[in-house]
Predict the structure.
Amino acid sequence: MSYYSKNNLKTQKNMIITEDKTLNYIKEVLENMPSDWLKLTTHRLDIYNEEQAKTEFLEQFEILFETNNAEKSALSELPTAYDYIRLGHPLSSVLEWAIAKLHHLKSENIISFSSATTPILAVLRKNLLTNKATQIVYSDELPAFFDTETIRKVYGYEFELKKVEKIAEIEKFDGSIIYLSQKNEISKANLDSKIDFFLNIHSELGSILFVNGKENESYISEIQHVRRRETIAMTPDDCFSALQILTENPTFKIPKREVEKNKNSVLASIKKITYSDSKAVVGSSGLSVQYAIMMGVIQDALENHKGKAIKFLVPPNCYGGTNDQARRVAACLDNVEVMDLPVDGDNDMVKSINTVLEKVAQLDAVPYIIAEIPTNPRVEVPDMIELEKALTKEYKTPNGEIAIQPVFILDQTFCPNVNFLGENQILSTVKTIAYVSGSKFPSGGKVTAGFAVANKKAAYLMDKIAKNSILCDNDATDLQMEFLAEQLPSMNQRIEDAYKNTRKFVTFIEEVLPAAKINFVSEELAKEGFTPSVFSLDLPTKGNTAEEKETHKRELNNKLITMMITQIPTESKYCVSYGQLKGCYWTIPATSTQGTTKESDKDYIARVSLSANMDLEKHKEVFTEFVKQI
């Protein structure tokens, strides 16, 4: 059956030929695709051009399509589509390309989401910032998760709702029209000229957004940015299912999983690991969870601290996603602002918290602190006793009243085994929410899901955080929960074993290249339980000027990584991640995790992540050779 409206016979015939060719080719691709397209969460940066994310992959994929080449070897040689599957991946790119092909659209006009809500929020965000009206049109009922009151009051988005029996009833509107279709379709869409954005919502797989009309193409990059920061692309597994449905595979059925069993296992593991009795939120990614936390605490502040300004204290050089998302939230809400919290390098987290909380108190505002322990990328741990004192200190407002107590939002992705939240622990006197990116140690790199819990003092916030995760349709998928159920029980042992390898490698580097500056936890901190398996390496450089020295250091970074990935290709990988099940990962934060960080705050150092399962002696050999060459 054709996806196109009727046209003259010749055009209709050409469309059917194109449609058949596209669907037949996709069938072959699904049979021959590399297994990594389904299994990897993070991809190689040495064959990745960020400026051409997705486009370079699809340009070469298009060439294979035109020559009808779906050989596994050819598909394996395609460049990296995105560096990290939260943003997009080969299967999301292929799905979007195929749907676009069937509708004679450009592939960038089709955007897949794991969430059914965030594509709507993406358009609302753009229109809020450009002062443009939005009408959301639907034919049956609004999706159950679409909480209109919260979206208006907490997110600050304005929109009209309109119910129609059929698309023909849609009238012209001075603004953007988003049409919601809940028929579990993948590709079929009535792209009426009055509709600006057509959203196909699939109850099991996510959603597909059609950006309709050239006049709306300016939205694409900003919608992609929302997918990058506040949610995730449709997962590889769900894209695979969507493509099977698209090609009408008669034998294919969406896999059924043991949802309740896996959920109970994951929640039990989280409770055991974190020592927290609070409600746990398990989201589609660490940033999805962080977004739920931010919107949840904002909702609480609006209800319980009416009229007061809200301040998020965020390290300017922390993980780029954290930094960028916080500032994006603040950009949409007049009463929310981000304040810089310098935490590592020449700065001290405790002193910075003292200083900034004094400023917040003078503003009589509501403070929320987002920080990583250990810090990223320099792997520093603050004096925890002094940190507790700074967070529990009574700060005074200008009229002498006690200032509002801060909530400490702790990203403990780099030490998910440390007990911060239990009774009588160092942060038990502080309102603390802890969250972890599950793509690291919790799943061993198998999925992007993340989770959040709170200690007793902050447990009351978890209901609102959970509500916002559901509103954004950002809860973990069934497959993500399955992988977490499989991997979480062994997490603490994997952390211990990976730390041992990392300590040995750090000690070795200190011996063979003593001039290098290594940022890693001390033996004393390790005894306290801080046992990360990542360190940063500031290589010794030379030159007559600061610029020459910096250039030489960056050259050395690239030389070292190139030697590692070429001489140990089965283990060493140039990519962004941590807590992997095997091998050794290398990256340069300034060009990867700090992508949206201000240039002056970026770290051009090497970050190295080791696992328990790797040939450490071979890595020592290659490093020794590197030292001889410099």
